[in-house]
């Protein structure tokens, strides 16, 4: 066996404490699997006195995480502080600059500075591993970096935020509103006091940005992502989805199109019988469509132990001397992605309209859709029950929402059709438009 | 970049031809990802003249695969001939003996000689990679070897044979018999002319043996697997499963119990809302329950391109200089598994009985179950519809099968109860007993 691999960990919160605990638990087995003894020799966090429920015996306490990052006593710097700014950023930069391998779970940091950090790692010839940064315990980075290296990837998409999936799952099961569900999720610890980052889709976008780079060999381009969260989802949308054979998930989706790379985060209708539709509660899932294989990976996207599992795998790879470029190819080979405009997006749509209570409204809607060459799979009017494949003008008297499921069309056509309905004066309120993702 | 990695491929059938084709297609991108040029320099198969639809320009043709295995012009030997015997075995042995890294998709060979081959690889310090041998295009070996190395694994199970899954899926969807379905599968190329290896569970057992070793650090022990195939499954079983909230899958299951390692292959009831229940047709799935994460991986278990994807990933790992021990730990650290006797198996059961048409039969059955401390979740009699949570003696007049779903009990208790019913003379024909796997 080679020398001990000496690990320094900055951040002993939910993830950091689990890493220390699980590494102690696996101990010899981990070293045996990695072919080399692995030891946490130094740690850093804000408050030294906090009881973290872990044994820190034999580990040096270093006050300043940036000092730890360049400490001559460590080979690997594990950053589990979080945040796109300092001290996480400065610490990771310092560690790479000092030629230390780095492991981090910090999606915010990587989504913002991923390319620059990868360049630093490459320059020093050290690993920059971030399995835990996307989908927590699911080994999707390894799968993209190594497992699917023989493939050209066409699309990668997934449920990347457990909080949103928990809320949408409960809203669907219990018919409760977003607001009530969010409150409950906060009470149960599944959502933060400030939920914006999760429910408005930013966390999903950070993870998606990393998946996109890995899948398509592009520079990390968080700004190229179109982002919608789940606040606008109403119980009626989930009920209609169920009736029409779908579930609603907040997805991050990246795909290669003729126009470039399309990256989007939004609530999505997914067919009930798809693998991803079965992924409920806080679970995450990632689906990868490639030329030789289509894969779906399902597992825990967060939680101390699950995330620590990914961090430990990254450390073990370094112990083994395995190093894959952060974004698979050398940074110089990564291309600036052309952003496919979302107006070019092609797919089916769920459209829920509040309409004026007047005869002929449904006919008007159907004709506006037809004018824009949008074929309808179904029109449903809540009071009169589902009417498939046609309109039922008589039912338009009821002051009820009209729900449309379209066949594949473009986002631009949908927007045009909705604008003309608005001009017609048939719409009350803002239409709810949810994209359908084929599986 | 380092020197070119020179690859020799023996076997240019379904998988081998796809490997050659996909490697040519990926070409520079693959080399870039692996940090090193990779080139197929020599190939071998039985008939040189066969049109394989691939370009073999620039590759030497070597008649004898064993000569290719030790050819001084190659660094990696890729064995895609198949079969546990020669020439595959001899070729792989020769290659390892000559210090070549080996990649193989040959589950039969590894299930039979895996430990011995791993020992050879270890002695020479070369890779023995076999991602394609289990679940085709799903990167489950890498996930176990590397991705989950921080975990203690408790159970690994999966749908590992696409032929069986295809047959069971169609039987369930269309209500047709095993025999008719098999014929159709053969006609469509989803089943071999001699289907024994697939439908009787042996192929699943080979793959399970490898997963067990990886998950539990044990020597490959194919003989320790209890194997039942799917021939005995009747449409009525699939119909009852559906009514009771289950689907039927041929699973390979390995779990750590107090008595040792339990390894079994058999048709299984899985809850309809589990991820694995959604895996239909020729798809495969592997679920891994570990202490820090539970994962489910779904994807193509066979097919030229999907399998080639795994082979190419194995080759790329070698190009990168990544080497993990074949069964994670050094062979000397692998333990001989204690076989947990299946009579100790604990779980729920589906039991379908053909019973004599006599009042009191159902009561008799229920009391025999009770005597053996088996609690029933439901008793269903086909003619009288489902009766949950109790027996309905009046309904026993109908000459219909009785279906029981038990709560967790032991295999031994079930066998005892069935023997006493047999002694009571209430049974006609052989009971159908299908284990339920909790998700
Ligand atoms: N939690 C998850 O489930 C999960 C999943 C995937 C990825 N991640 C990522 O993992 C990282 C860590 O997340 P977490 O949930 O473990 O966070 P956390 O529980 O808030 O822990 C953060 C840790 O960093 C320390 N810290 C904060 N500011 C510091 C400073 N200025 N100097 C030194 N130490 C400082 C804290 O010290 P004190 O303890 O002394 O306050 C704490 O130990 C984040 O990047 C997050 O995005 C988390
Ligand atoms: N097919 C799948 O979907 C799949 C999936 C997972 C794993 N695998 C595994 O992959 C391996 C290859 O499977 P396959 O489906 O590609 O098999 P295949 O189509 O039957 O191809 C076998 C190849 O080996 C060659 N071969 C046979 N005997 C030989 C001998 N004595 N000397 C030299 N060459 C010989 C054949 O040559 P000719 O072409 O000249 O006859 C043929 O090219 C097997 O271990 C299988 O279990 C297959």
UniProtKB/TrEMBL annotation, chains A, B:
Keywords noted in UniProt: Amino-acid biosynthesis, Methionine biosynthesis, NADP, Oxidoreductase, Threonine biosynthesis
Protein residues bound to NADP(+): 10-17
Binding positions for L-homoserine per the UniProt entry: 192
Record pathway: Amino-acid biosynthesis; L-methionine biosynthesis via de novo pathway; L-homoserine from L-aspartate: step 3/3; Amino-acid biosynthesis; L-threonine biosynthesis; L-threonine from L-aspartate: step 3/5
Keyword Oxidoreductase: yes
Pfam families named among the record's database cross-references: ACT, Homoserine_dh, NAD_binding_3
EC code(s) of this entry: 1.1.1.3
InterPro entries with a match to the protein in the record: ACT-like_dom_sf, ACT_dom, Asp/hSer_DH_NAD-bd, HDH, HDH_cat, HDH_CS, NAD(P)-bd_dom_sf
Organism superkingdom: Bacteria
Classification via SUPFAM superfamilies: ACT-like, Glyceraldehyde-3-phosphate dehydrogenase-like, C-terminal domain, NAD(P)-binding Rossmann-fold domains
Single annotated GO MF: NADP binding
Residues annotated to bind NADPH: 107
Catalytic residues (UniProt): 207 (proton donor)
Domain ACT residues, every copy: 350-432
PANTHER family attached to this UniProt entry: HOMOSERINE DEHYDROGENASE (PTHR43331:SF1)
Family under the similarity heading: Belongs to the homoserine dehydrogenase family.
Protein name: Homoserine dehydrogenase
């Amino acid at each position: 066996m080679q020398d001990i691999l000496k690990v320094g960990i900055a951040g002993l919160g939910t993830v950091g404490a689990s890493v220390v605990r699980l590494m102690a638990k696996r101990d010899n087995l981990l070293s045996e699997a990695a072919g080399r003894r692995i030891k946490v020799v130094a740690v850093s966090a804000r408050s030294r006195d906090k009881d973290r429920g872990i044994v820190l015996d034999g580990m040096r306490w270093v006050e300043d995480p940036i000092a730890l990052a360049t400490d001559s006593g460590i080979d690997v710097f594990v950053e589990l502080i979080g945040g796109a700014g300092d001290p996480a950023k400065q610490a990771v930069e310092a560690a790479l600059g000092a030629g230390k391998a780095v492991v981090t779970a910090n999606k915010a940091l990587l989504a913002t500075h991923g390319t620059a950090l990868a360049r630093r790692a490459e320059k020093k010839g050290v690993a920059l591993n971030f399995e835990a940064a996307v989908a927590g315990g699911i080994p999707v980075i390894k799968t993209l970096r190594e497992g699917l290296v023989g493939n050209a990837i066409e699309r990668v998409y997934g449920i990347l935020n457990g909080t949103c999936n928990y809320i949408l799952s409960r809203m669907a099961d219990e018919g409760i509103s977003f607001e009530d569900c969010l409150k409950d999720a906060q009470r149960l610890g599944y959502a933060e006091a400030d939920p914006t980052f999760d429910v408005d889709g930013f966390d999903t976008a950070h993870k998606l940005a990393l998946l996109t780079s890995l899948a398509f060999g592009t520079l990390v381009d968080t700004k190229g992502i179109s982002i919608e969260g789940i606040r606008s989802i109403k119980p009626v949308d989930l009920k209609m989805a169920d009736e029409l054979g779908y579930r609603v998930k907040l997805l991050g989706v990246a795909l290669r199109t003729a126009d470039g790379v399309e990256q989007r985060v939004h609530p999505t209708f997914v067919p009930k019988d798809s693998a991803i539709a079965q992924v409920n509660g806080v679970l995450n899932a990632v689906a990868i469509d490639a030329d030789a294989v289509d894969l779906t990976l399902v597992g825990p996207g967060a939680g101390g132990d699950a995330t620590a599992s990914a961090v430990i795998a990254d450390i073990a790879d370094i112990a083994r001397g395995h190093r894959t470029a952060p974004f698979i190819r050398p940074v110089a080979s990564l291309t600036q992605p052309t952003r496919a405009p979302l107006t070019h997006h092609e797919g089916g749509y769920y459209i829920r309209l509040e309409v004026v209570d007047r005869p002929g409204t449904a006919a008007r809607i159907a004709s506006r859709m037809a004018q824009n060459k949008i074929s309808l799979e179904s029109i449903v009017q809540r009071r009169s029950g589902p009417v498939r494949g046609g309109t039922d003008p008589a039912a338009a008297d009821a002051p009820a929402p009209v729900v449309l499921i379209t066949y594949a069309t473009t986002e631009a056509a949908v927007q045009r059709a909705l604008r003309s309905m608005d001009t017609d004066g048939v719409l009350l309120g803002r239409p709810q438009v949810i994209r359908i993702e084929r599986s």
